[in-house]
């Protein structure tokens, strides 16, 4: 199976994730698209509110809020 998995160059995931710091927590919807070494991730609330975009390629990762503020 390992050889078969190594042949995947492009894939995507859509789902929901939960998180907690032990005191507070929450959840977000998730989309992740991977093309070879490049990725685009969106984390968003209901009706795609409060979206965070994370994109990356070798040597560079950026995080952008739904207000367009990039980190």
Question: Can you lay out the helices and strands and say which pair or pack?
Answer:
Layout: H1 2-6, E1 10-20, E2 25-35, E3 38-44, E4 52-57, E5 60-65
Antiparallel strand pairs: 1-2, 2-3, 3-4, 4-5
Q: Whole-Å distance between the termini?
A: 38 Å
The portion of residues assigned to helices is under 10%
> Helical region count?
1
What composes the largest sheet?
5 strands, antiparallel
Describe what this molecule looks like in 3D.
This protein is mostly beta strands and 71 residues long. It contains 1 helix and 5 strands; from the N terminus they run αβββββ. The protein has one helix at 2-6; strands at 10-20, 25-35, 38-44, 52-57, 60-65. Strands 1-2-3-4-5 form a 5-stranded antiparallel beta sheet, with no helix packed on it. A hairpin with a 4-residue loop joins strand 1 and strand 2 (25-35). The longest helix has 5 residues, at 2-6.
Provide a compact summary of the structure.
It is built from one helix and five strands. It is mainly beta.
What keywords describe this structure?
single chain, 71 residues, mainly beta, 5-stranded antiparallel sheet
């Amino acid at each position: 199976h390992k050889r078969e998995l190594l042949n995947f160059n492009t894939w995507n995931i859509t789902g929901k994730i939960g998180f907690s710091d032990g005191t507070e927590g929450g959840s977000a919807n998730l989309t992740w698209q991977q093309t070879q070494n490049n990725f685009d991730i969106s984390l968003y609330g209901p009706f795609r509110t409060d979206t965070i975009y994370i994109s990356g390629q070798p040597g560079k990762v950026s995080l952008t809020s739904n207000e367009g503020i990039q980190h």
